[in-house]
Amino acid sequence: MKTVFIADSHPVVQVGITQMLSMETGFKVIGTAKSSSELFEKLENETPDVLMLEMDFPEINGIACLRKMKKNHPDVKVLMYSGQSEDVYAISSIRAGAQGYLSKNADLDYIVAALEKISDGKMFITNELAQRLAFDEGTQKPRRLFRKLSTREIEVLKMLASGKRNKDVALGLGLNEKTISTYKARLMKKLNVDNMVDLLQQAKALDIF
């Protein structure tokens, strides 16, 4: 029996996934958490085969939580999932150490398929995403631009797009304000803009909000 831990801030999602997996042979949910502090507290006593981690997780965001997971619990495989842009966050998540990424808009069958693949030591992304990433369509310039961004740059852009000031971004990511200013300069250069208004417009084009 393979074990799963669900880290999601919405109780209805926790219950729904737990009930669905209870009907599938081979998987058992051994715990849930609604915040990062609760997650790491519970992982002191539980070691699941796969952690399902929500991207927009409270206290620290999903990517930062993922990095901490890989440092503190390197043997736990992580499936990131989110209602946000799969094109942007799948690659960002995998770069940060996740074994797979799943959109919350995906069919329920994908959850089981993803867990099976990841628990067997393989990577998982949907066929649709793989096909989209294989082609650079002329109308998808913003999507091509995001691939130039590092995982940390995407984190900074996401927090800036949500209205946070440099000081708040620095505090949230454990960096200093000067470093955040450096990241902003890099973002503007990579996204071909020269002011914050246009930078935030690019964030909107990338579905980062």
From TrEMBL:
Keyword flag DNA-binding: yes
Q: Which UniProt keywords apply?
A: DNA-binding, Phosphoprotein, Transcription, Transcription regulation
Q: Name one GO molecular function term.
A: DNA binding
Q: Where is the HTH luxR-type domain?
A: 142-207
Q: Name one GO biological process term.
A: phosphorelay signal transduction system
| Taxonomic superkingdom | Bacteria
Which Pfam families does the protein's record reference?
A: GerE (PF00196), Response_reg (PF00072)
Specify the Response regulatory domain's residue ranges.
Answer: 3-119
Q: What is this protein called?
A: Two component transcriptional regulator, LuxR family
Q: Which organism is it from?
A: Cellulophaga fucicola
Upper classification of the source organism reads: Bacteria, Pseudomonadati, Bacteroidota, Flavobacteriia, Flavobacteriales
